[in-house]
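Figure 3 (text version): C-alpha coordinates given as input.
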Protein backbone atom coordinates (compact mmCIF):
# COMPACT_ATOMS: atom_id res chain seq x y z
CA UNK A 1 0.00 0.00 0.00
CA UNK A 2 1.05 3.61 -0.48
CA UNK A 3 0.82 6.39 2.08
CA UNK A 4 -1.33 9.53 1.85
CA UNK A 5 -3.36 8.48 -1.16
CA UNK A 6 -6.41 6.56 -2.28
CA UNK A 7 -4.94 3.22 -3.29
CA UNK A 8 -7.12 2.97 -6.41
CA UNK A 9 -5.76 6.31 -7.65
CA UNK A 10 -2.11 5.51 -7.16
CA UNK A 11 -0.29 5.36 -10.45
CA UNK A 12 3.36 6.38 -10.70
CA UNK A 13 6.49 5.24 -12.46
CA UNK A 14 9.19 3.26 -10.69
CA UNK A 15 12.17 5.40 -9.79
CA UNK A 16 15.47 3.63 -10.22
CA UNK A 17 18.18 6.26 -9.77
CA UNK A 18 19.05 9.79 -8.85
CA UNK A 19 21.83 12.31 -8.59
CA UNK A 20 21.85 15.85 -7.26
CA UNK A 21 18.48 17.49 -7.82
CA UNK A 22 17.37 14.93 -10.43
CA UNK A 23 16.00 11.41 -10.32
CA UNK A 24 14.93 9.07 -13.10
CA UNK A 25 12.55 6.22 -13.75
CA UNK A 26 12.89 2.75 -15.21
CA UNK A 27 12.05 4.07 -18.69
CA UNK A 28 14.82 6.66 -18.55
CA UNK A 29 12.65 9.76 -17.94
CA UNK A 30 14.44 12.33 -15.79
CA UNK A 31 12.69 14.60 -13.30
CA UNK A 32 13.99 17.78 -11.66
CA UNK A 33 12.98 17.44 -8.02
CA UNK A 34 11.28 20.70 -6.98
CA UNK A 35 10.17 19.46 -3.57
CA UNK A 36 13.13 17.37 -2.34
CA UNK A 37 10.52 14.58 -2.46
CA UNK A 38 8.80 15.04 0.94
CA UNK A 39 10.89 18.18 1.63
CA UNK A 40 13.58 15.83 2.91
CA UNK A 41 16.28 15.24 0.27
CA UNK A 42 17.99 18.52 1.12
CA UNK A 43 21.41 17.24 -0.01
CA UNK A 44 20.07 15.99 -3.31
CA UNK A 45 19.91 12.35 -4.29
CA UNK A 46 22.75 9.90 -3.68
CA UNK A 47 25.14 12.28 -1.95
CA UNK A 48 28.49 10.44 -2.31
CA UNK A 49 29.79 11.28 1.19
CA UNK A 50 26.62 10.04 2.86
CA UNK A 51 26.65 6.83 0.85
CA UNK A 52 30.33 6.27 1.67
CA UNK A 53 29.62 6.78 5.39
CA UNK A 54 26.75 4.26 5.33
CA UNK A 55 28.97 1.75 3.49
CA UNK A 56 31.83 2.28 5.90
CA UNK A 57 29.60 1.87 8.96
CA UNK A 58 27.85 -1.17 7.47
CA UNK A 59 31.23 -2.79 6.98
CA UNK A 60 32.19 -2.11 10.60
CA UNK A 61 29.05 -2.51 12.74
CA UNK A 62 25.45 -2.32 11.54
CA UNK A 63 23.66 -2.23 14.87
CA UNK A 64 24.05 -1.86 18.57
CA UNK A 65 21.24 -0.88 20.95
CA UNK A 66 21.43 2.30 22.99
CA UNK A 67 22.27 0.16 26.02
CA UNK A 68 25.77 0.40 24.53
CA UNK A 69 27.76 3.33 23.26
CA UNK A 70 28.25 3.87 19.52
CA UNK A 71 30.82 6.20 18.03
CA UNK A 72 28.69 7.65 15.20
CA UNK A 73 25.83 8.27 17.66
CA UNK A 74 28.09 10.21 20.02
CA UNK A 75 29.79 12.09 17.20
CA UNK A 76 26.51 13.12 15.55
CA UNK A 77 25.05 14.30 18.87
CA UNK A 78 28.12 16.46 19.48
CA UNK A 79 27.96 17.86 15.97
CA UNK A 80 24.28 18.76 16.24
CA UNK A 81 24.80 20.48 19.59
CA UNK A 82 27.66 22.38 18.03
CA UNK A 83 25.83 23.68 14.94
CA UNK A 84 22.67 24.50 16.91
CA UNK A 85 24.40 26.16 19.86
CA UNK A 86 22.51 24.00 22.40
CA UNK A 87 25.45 24.22 24.77
CA UNK A 88 25.29 21.66 27.56
CA UNK A 89 22.25 20.08 25.94
CA UNK A 90 21.76 16.51 24.78
CA UNK A 91 20.32 14.64 21.85
CA UNK A 92 17.87 11.73 21.88
CA UNK A 93 17.76 9.90 18.55
CA UNK A 94 14.51 8.61 17.11
CA UNK A 95 13.44 6.97 13.87
CA UNK A 96 11.57 9.87 12.31
CA UNK A 97 9.85 13.19 12.91
CA UNK A 98 6.65 11.82 14.47
CA UNK A 99 8.38 9.90 17.25
CA UNK A 100 10.74 12.84 17.78
CA UNK A 101 7.69 15.00 18.51
CA UNK A 102 6.11 12.37 20.75
CA UNK A 103 9.35 12.10 22.72
CA UNK A 104 9.72 15.86 22.99
CA UNK A 105 6.24 16.03 24.52
CA UNK A 106 7.11 13.20 26.94
CA UNK A 107 10.30 15.04 27.92
CA UNK A 108 8.41 18.31 28.45
CA UNK A 109 5.91 16.55 30.70
CA UNK A 110 8.58 14.75 32.71
CA UNK A 111 10.97 17.69 32.97
CA UNK A 112 8.19 20.04 34.10
CA UNK A 113 6.59 17.53 36.46
CA UNK A 114 3.28 18.20 34.65
CA UNK A 115 2.81 14.56 33.84
CA UNK A 116 -0.48 14.92 32.03
CA UNK A 117 0.23 18.51 30.98
CA UNK A 118 -1.45 20.01 27.94
CA UNK A 119 0.34 20.55 24.66
CA UNK A 120 -0.51 23.85 23.04
CA UNK A 121 -0.42 23.55 19.23
CA UNK A 122 -1.97 25.42 16.33
CA UNK A 123 -4.56 24.94 13.68
CA UNK A 124 -2.91 24.44 10.28
CA UNK A 125 0.08 22.58 11.66
CA UNK A 126 1.52 19.15 10.98
CA UNK A 127 3.60 17.15 13.43
CA UNK A 128 3.38 13.60 12.07
CA UNK A 129 1.08 10.72 11.21
CA UNK A 130 1.30 8.55 14.32
CA UNK A 131 -1.86 8.56 16.43
CA UNK A 132 -0.51 11.01 18.98
CA UNK A 133 1.11 13.40 16.49
CA UNK A 134 -1.98 13.46 14.27
CA UNK A 135 -3.77 14.71 17.34
CA UNK A 136 -1.09 17.33 18.02
CA UNK A 137 -1.47 18.45 14.39
CA UNK A 138 -4.14 20.96 13.40
CA UNK A 139 -4.51 19.33 10.01
CA UNK A 140 -7.69 18.39 8.17
CA UNK A 141 -6.18 15.12 6.94
CA UNK A 142 -7.30 12.30 9.19
CA UNK A 143 -9.69 11.99 12.07
CA UNK A 144 -8.43 13.92 15.04
CA UNK A 145 -9.14 13.58 18.72
CA UNK A 146 -6.94 16.31 20.22
CA UNK A 147 -8.60 15.82 23.60
CA UNK A 148 -7.06 12.32 23.78
CA UNK A 149 -3.58 13.82 23.72
CA UNK A 150 -4.46 16.75 25.93
CA UNK A 151 -4.02 19.31 23.19
CA UNK A 152 -5.05 22.96 23.42
CA UNK A 153 -5.54 24.51 20.01
CA UNK A 154 -4.80 28.09 18.94
CA UNK A 155 -5.38 29.95 15.67
CA UNK A 156 -2.47 30.12 13.20
CA UNK A 157 -0.41 33.20 12.24
CA UNK A 158 -1.84 32.99 8.74
CA UNK A 159 -1.45 36.54 7.46
CA UNK A 160 -2.87 35.96 3.97
CA UNK A 161 -6.15 34.69 5.43
CA UNK A 162 -6.09 36.10 8.91
CA UNK A 163 -8.40 34.06 11.17
CA UNK A 164 -9.10 37.31 13.06
CA UNK A 165 -10.18 39.15 9.93
CA UNK A 166 -7.30 41.62 9.57
CA UNK A 167 -6.76 42.57 5.96
CA UNK A 168 -3.22 43.95 6.08
CA UNK A 169 -0.07 44.08 8.12
CA UNK A 170 -0.76 47.65 9.19
CA UNK A 171 -4.20 46.71 10.51
CA UNK A 172 -2.88 43.58 12.28
CA UNK A 173 -2.85 43.59 16.09
CA UNK A 174 -1.19 40.16 16.37
CA UNK A 175 -4.33 38.56 17.71
CA UNK A 176 -2.65 35.22 16.91
CA UNK A 177 -0.22 36.00 19.76
CA UNK A 178 -3.04 37.17 22.05
CA UNK A 179 -4.80 33.89 21.25
CA UNK A 180 -1.82 31.96 22.67
CA UNK A 181 -1.84 34.15 25.79
CA UNK A 182 -5.55 33.64 26.18
CA UNK A 183 -5.26 29.87 25.76
CA UNK A 184 -2.55 29.77 28.44
CA UNK A 185 -4.72 31.83 30.73
CA UNK A 186 -7.79 29.67 30.09
CA UNK A 187 -6.06 26.35 30.69
CA UNK A 188 -3.77 27.72 33.40
CA UNK A 189 0.01 27.88 32.94
CA UNK A 190 0.49 25.17 35.55
CA UNK A 191 -1.35 22.66 33.43
CA UNK A 192 0.43 23.34 30.10
CA UNK A 193 3.67 21.38 29.66
CA UNK A 194 4.68 22.55 26.21
CA UNK A 195 4.01 24.77 23.26
CA UNK A 196 4.72 22.72 20.12
CA UNK A 197 5.06 24.70 16.90
CA UNK A 198 6.71 24.52 13.52
CA UNK A 199 9.29 27.26 13.63
CA UNK A 200 8.93 28.16 9.97
CA UNK A 201 8.24 25.92 6.99
CA UNK A 202 5.50 23.35 7.17
CA UNK A 203 3.15 21.35 4.97
CA UNK A 204 0.26 23.60 5.93
CA UNK A 205 1.98 26.45 4.15
CA UNK A 206 2.00 28.87 7.06
CA UNK A 207 4.95 31.23 7.34
CA UNK A 208 4.60 33.26 10.53
CA UNK A 209 5.59 36.94 10.69
CA UNK A 210 9.08 37.46 12.09
CA UNK A 211 7.96 38.61 15.55
CA UNK A 212 5.73 35.57 16.15
CA UNK A 213 8.46 33.22 17.38
CA UNK A 214 9.94 35.78 19.82
CA UNK A 215 6.43 36.35 21.20
CA UNK A 216 5.91 32.61 21.72
CA UNK A 217 9.29 32.45 23.42
CA UNK A 218 8.34 35.27 25.77
CA UNK A 219 4.95 33.74 26.64
CA UNK A 220 6.63 30.41 27.41
CA UNK A 221 9.30 32.06 29.57
CA UNK A 222 6.77 34.13 31.51
CA UNK A 223 4.60 31.11 32.19
CA UNK A 224 7.14 28.36 32.84
CA UNK A 225 6.14 26.40 29.74
CA UNK A 226 8.61 24.55 27.53
CA UNK A 227 8.84 25.71 23.92
CA UNK A 228 9.40 22.93 21.35
CA UNK A 229 10.41 23.92 17.81
CA UNK A 230 9.34 21.32 15.27
CA UNK A 231 12.26 21.64 12.84
CA UNK A 232 11.47 18.43 10.99
CA UNK A 233 10.86 20.29 7.74
CA UNK A 234 12.44 23.68 8.44
CA UNK A 235 15.73 22.26 9.73
CA UNK A 236 18.99 21.74 7.89
CA UNK A 237 19.01 24.78 5.69
CA UNK A 238 15.55 24.57 4.20
CA UNK A 239 14.74 28.21 5.04
CA UNK A 240 18.25 29.64 4.72
CA UNK A 241 19.36 28.95 8.31
CA UNK A 242 20.41 25.72 9.96
CA UNK A 243 17.13 25.83 11.91
CA UNK A 244 14.03 27.94 11.39
CA UNK A 245 13.97 29.45 14.90
CA UNK A 246 17.39 31.02 14.17
CA UNK A 247 15.67 33.64 12.01
CA UNK A 248 14.61 35.19 15.34
CA UNK A 249 18.15 35.11 16.80
CA UNK A 250 19.99 33.02 19.36
CA UNK A 251 18.22 34.59 22.30
CA UNK A 252 15.05 32.89 21.11
CA UNK A 253 16.45 29.37 21.16
CA UNK A 254 13.67 26.94 22.13
CA UNK A 255 13.93 24.51 25.05
CA UNK A 256 13.80 21.60 22.65
CA UNK A 257 13.81 21.08 18.93
CA UNK A 258 12.80 18.05 16.92
CA UNK A 259 14.62 16.97 13.79
CA UNK A 260 14.27 14.40 10.98
CA UNK A 261 14.22 14.60 7.15
CA UNK A 262 17.31 16.75 6.38
CA UNK A 263 19.27 15.25 9.28
CA UNK A 264 20.44 12.51 6.89
CA UNK A 265 19.22 14.25 3.75
CA UNK A 266 16.72 11.35 3.72
CA UNK A 267 19.33 8.82 2.71
CA UNK A 268 18.28 6.66 5.65
CA UNK A 269 15.64 7.21 8.38
CA UNK A 270 16.57 9.18 11.49
CA UNK A 271 15.00 11.71 13.82
CA UNK A 272 16.11 13.44 16.99
CA UNK A 273 15.06 15.53 19.95
CA UNK A 274 17.60 18.12 21.03
CA UNK A 275 17.10 19.27 24.63
CA UNK A 276 18.57 22.31 26.35
CA UNK A 277 20.97 22.04 29.29
CA UNK A 278 18.12 23.03 31.59
CA UNK A 279 15.76 20.33 30.30
CA UNK A 280 18.59 17.84 30.43
CA UNK A 281 19.27 18.74 34.07
CA UNK A 282 15.63 17.96 34.90
CA UNK A 283 15.72 14.62 33.09
CA UNK A 284 19.17 13.48 34.13
CA UNK A 285 18.13 11.50 37.17
CA UNK A 286 14.73 10.31 35.92
CA UNK A 287 13.97 6.93 34.42
CA UNK A 288 13.23 7.56 30.73
CA UNK A 289 10.44 5.21 29.77
CA UNK A 290 10.97 5.64 26.07
CA UNK A 291 12.85 4.49 22.99
CA UNK A 292 12.17 2.16 20.09
CA UNK A 293 14.47 -0.74 19.28
CA UNK A 294 16.23 1.10 16.47
CA UNK A 295 16.60 4.52 18.11
CA UNK A 296 20.09 5.87 17.43
CA UNK A 297 20.82 3.21 14.81
CA UNK A 298 24.54 3.43 13.96
CA UNK A 299 23.96 3.32 10.19
CA UNK A 300 21.58 6.28 10.46
CA UNK A 301 23.89 8.22 12.78
CA UNK A 302 26.87 7.65 10.48
CA UNK A 303 24.77 8.96 7.60
CA UNK A 304 23.65 11.92 9.74
CA UNK A 305 27.22 12.85 10.60
CA UNK A 306 28.28 12.75 6.95
CA UNK A 307 25.20 14.77 6.02
CA UNK A 308 25.86 17.53 8.57
CA UNK A 309 29.48 17.67 7.42
CA UNK A 310 28.32 17.96 3.80
CA UNK A 311 26.03 20.92 4.68
CA UNK A 312 29.07 22.56 6.25
CA UNK A 313 31.71 21.66 3.64
CA UNK A 314 29.55 22.70 0.73
CA UNK A 315 28.23 25.82 2.53
CA UNK A 316 24.72 24.69 1.69
CA UNK A 317 22.99 26.71 4.38
CA UNK A 318 24.37 29.94 2.87
CA UNK A 319 23.56 28.62 -0.57
CA UNK A 320 19.94 28.09 0.46
CA UNK A 321 19.79 31.64 1.74
CA UNK A 322 21.35 33.16 -1.39
CA UNK A 323 19.75 31.00 -4.07
CA UNK A 324 16.56 31.28 -2.05
CA UNK A 325 16.58 35.05 -2.57
CA UNK A 326 16.61 34.63 -6.31
CA UNK A 327 13.98 31.87 -6.09
CA UNK A 328 11.66 34.13 -4.08
CA UNK A 329 12.24 36.98 -6.58
CA UNK A 330 11.50 34.69 -9.53
CA UNK A 331 8.29 33.51 -7.87
CA UNK A 332 7.20 37.10 -7.25
CA UNK A 333 7.92 37.62 -10.96
CA UNK A 334 5.63 34.69 -11.79
CA UNK A 335 2.98 36.15 -9.51
CA UNK A 336 3.11 39.40 -11.48
CA UNK A 337 2.17 37.46 -14.63
CA UNK A 338 -0.30 35.00 -13.21
CA UNK A 339 -3.46 36.30 -11.58
CA UNK A 340 -3.99 32.84 -10.16
CA UNK A 341 -1.06 33.19 -7.74
CA UNK A 342 -2.63 34.96 -4.79
CA UNK A 343 0.33 34.82 -2.45
CA UNK A 344 4.01 33.90 -2.47
CA UNK A 345 5.68 33.34 0.88
CA UNK A 346 8.75 31.66 2.31
CA UNK A 347 12.47 32.09 2.67
CA UNK A 348 15.57 30.25 1.61
CA UNK A 349 14.78 27.33 -0.69
CA UNK A 350 11.28 27.01 0.70
CA UNK A 351 8.31 28.77 -0.83
CA UNK A 352 4.59 28.38 -1.03
CA UNK A 353 2.44 29.60 -3.88
CA UNK A 354 -1.16 29.94 -2.80
CA UNK A 355 -3.53 29.73 -5.78
CA UNK A 356 -6.79 31.68 -5.94
CA UNK A 357 -9.73 31.98 -8.30
CA UNK A 358 -9.73 35.71 -7.84
CA UNK A 359 -6.95 37.86 -6.45
CA UNK A 360 -9.23 40.55 -5.09
CA UNK A 361 -11.60 38.24 -3.23
CA UNK A 362 -8.83 35.69 -2.50
CA UNK A 363 -11.30 32.88 -3.15
CA UNK A 364 -9.34 29.60 -3.00
CA UNK A 365 -9.25 27.31 -6.01
CA UNK A 366 -10.53 24.58 -3.65
CA UNK A 367 -11.43 24.71 0.04
CA UNK A 368 -8.51 23.93 2.34
CA UNK A 369 -8.33 20.19 2.94
CA UNK A 370 -9.84 19.09 -0.37
CA UNK A 371 -7.73 18.45 -3.40
CA UNK A 372 -7.86 20.10 -6.79
CA UNK A 373 -8.23 17.76 -9.74
CA UNK A 374 -6.78 20.48 -11.98
CA UNK A 375 -3.74 20.96 -9.73
CA UNK A 376 -3.12 17.20 -9.83
CA UNK A 377 -3.29 17.60 -13.60
CA UNK A 378 -0.56 20.23 -13.37
CA UNK A 379 1.61 17.82 -11.40
CA UNK A 380 1.08 15.09 -14.01
CA UNK A 381 1.84 17.37 -16.93
CA UNK A 382 4.93 18.73 -15.17
CA UNK A 383 6.14 15.14 -14.79
CA UNK A 384 5.72 14.66 -18.52
CA UNK A 385 7.89 17.76 -19.01
CA UNK A 386 10.55 16.46 -16.62
CA UNK A 387 9.75 18.28 -13.38
CA UNK A 388 8.39 16.94 -10.10
CA UNK A 389 6.25 19.37 -8.07
CA UNK A 390 4.55 18.91 -4.69
CA UNK A 391 1.06 20.31 -4.24
CA UNK A 392 -1.52 20.33 -1.52
CA UNK A 393 -5.07 21.65 -1.74
CA UNK A 394 -4.50 25.16 -3.16
CA UNK A 395 -0.76 25.27 -2.53
CA UNK A 396 2.28 24.55 -4.65
CA UNK A 397 5.18 23.88 -2.27
CA UNK A 398 8.57 24.71 -3.78
CA UNK A 399 11.45 23.15 -1.82
CA UNK A 400 14.21 21.86 -4.13
CA UNK A 401 17.39 20.18 -2.86
CA UNK A 402 19.89 22.78 -1.66
CA UNK A 403 22.30 21.55 -4.36
CA UNK A 404 19.97 22.33 -7.27
CA UNK A 405 21.81 24.23 -10.01
CA UNK A 406 20.67 27.67 -11.20
CA UNK A 407 20.02 26.11 -14.57
CA UNK A 408 17.78 23.34 -13.19
CA UNK A 409 15.89 25.86 -11.09
CA UNK A 410 15.32 28.13 -14.10
CA UNK A 411 14.15 25.17 -16.25
CA UNK A 412 11.71 23.99 -13.59
CA UNK A 413 10.28 27.47 -13.07
CA UNK A 414 9.84 27.94 -16.78
CA UNK A 415 7.81 24.69 -16.91
CA UNK A 416 5.70 26.03 -14.05
CA UNK A 417 5.23 29.31 -15.90
CA UNK A 418 4.05 27.45 -19.03
CA UNK A 419 1.69 25.20 -17.11
CA UNK A 420 0.14 28.03 -15.12
CA UNK A 421 -0.61 29.81 -18.41
CA UNK A 422 -2.07 26.68 -20.00
CA UNK A 423 -4.03 25.47 -17.00
CA UNK A 424 -5.17 28.70 -15.32
CA UNK A 425 -8.77 28.42 -16.64
CA UNK A 426 -9.05 24.81 -15.40
CA UNK A 427 -7.42 25.68 -12.07
CA UNK A 428 -9.84 28.55 -11.61
CA UNK A 429 -12.76 26.28 -12.38
CA UNK A 430 -13.66 28.13 -15.59
CA UNK A 431 -13.30 24.97 -17.73
CA UNK A 432 -13.42 21.32 -16.77
C1 LIG B 1 6.89 19.82 10.49
C2 LIG B 1 6.82 18.34 10.47
N1 LIG B 1 6.83 17.66 11.62
C3 LIG B 1 6.79 16.32 11.66
C4 LIG B 1 6.71 15.59 10.51
C5 LIG B 1 6.63 14.08 10.59
O1 LIG B 1 7.85 13.54 10.21
P1 LIG B 1 7.94 11.99 9.79
O2 LIG B 1 7.12 11.84 8.55
O3 LIG B 1 9.40 11.77 9.58
O4 LIG B 1 7.40 11.21 10.93
C6 LIG B 1 6.69 16.25 9.28
C7 LIG B 1 6.60 15.48 8.02
O5 LIG B 1 6.28 15.99 6.97
C8 LIG B 1 6.74 17.66 9.25
O6 LIG B 1 6.70 18.35 8.11
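Below: residues designed for each position.
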Amino acid sequence: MHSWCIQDNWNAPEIVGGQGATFWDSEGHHYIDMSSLAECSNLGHQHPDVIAAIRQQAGQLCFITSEWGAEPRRALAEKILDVSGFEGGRVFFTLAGADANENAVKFARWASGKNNGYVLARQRSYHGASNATMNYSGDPRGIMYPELEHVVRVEPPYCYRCPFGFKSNTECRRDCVSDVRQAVENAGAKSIAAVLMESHAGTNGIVAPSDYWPSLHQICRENGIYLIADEVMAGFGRTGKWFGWQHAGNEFRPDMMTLAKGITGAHIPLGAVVVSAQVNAELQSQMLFTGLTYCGHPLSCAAGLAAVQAYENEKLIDRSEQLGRSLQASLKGLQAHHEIIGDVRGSGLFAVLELVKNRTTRESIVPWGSSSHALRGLVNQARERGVSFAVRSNLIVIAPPLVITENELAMALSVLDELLTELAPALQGLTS
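The mean pLDDT is 96.
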